[in-house]
Design brief:
Number of strands: 2
Radius of gyration: 19 Å
Number of helices: 4
Structural class: alpha+beta
Distance between the termini: 45 Å
Strand order of the largest sheet: 1-2
Strand content: 5-15%
Shape: elongated
Largest sheet: 2 strands, parallel
Helix content: 25-40%
Order of helices and strands: HHHEEH
């Protein structure tokens, strides 16, 4: 996939705000390095310093930039909205959530049964 130009490779996306050693990592880090839940969230945020003042995700911040440039953008989550897709709330963009089993089929019968 990567060699064909259809994929990306991200190396070393660990969540550290500065270099640490085996002796000082506990006192020098701002997150729980061995907590799966914490590291999963931090990997979605990719914002060690939270410079934007919000708890926004990396994809949400990309959508924010595109929206500020006048493009029409949308965030779509599958079975929920994770931190990765959340953008700056002041921009008023919400995340659409669809089921992993797909969207509901709209038929005349489904409309008549409502």
């Amino acid at each position: 996939i990567y060699d064909n130009g259809h994929g990306q490779f991200h190396a070393n996306i660990g969540h550290l705000s500065k270099p640490v050693t085996k002796g000082n990592w506990f006192t020098e880090t701002q997150t729980h390095l061995f907590s799966h839940n914490t590291m999963e969230r931090e990997a979605q945020l990719v914002d060690a310093f939270q410079e934007d003042g919000w708890s926004t995700g990396v994809c949400g911040r990309m959508l924010d930039v595109l929206q500020r440039r006048g493009l029409s953008v949308a965030g779509i989550g599958i079975d929920g909205k994770g931190p990765i897709i959340e953008g700056n709330p002041s921009l008023g963009r919400t995340v659409d959530v669809i089921s992993s089993s797909g969207v509901n089929t709209l038929t005349r019968l489904s409309l008549d049964n409502k």
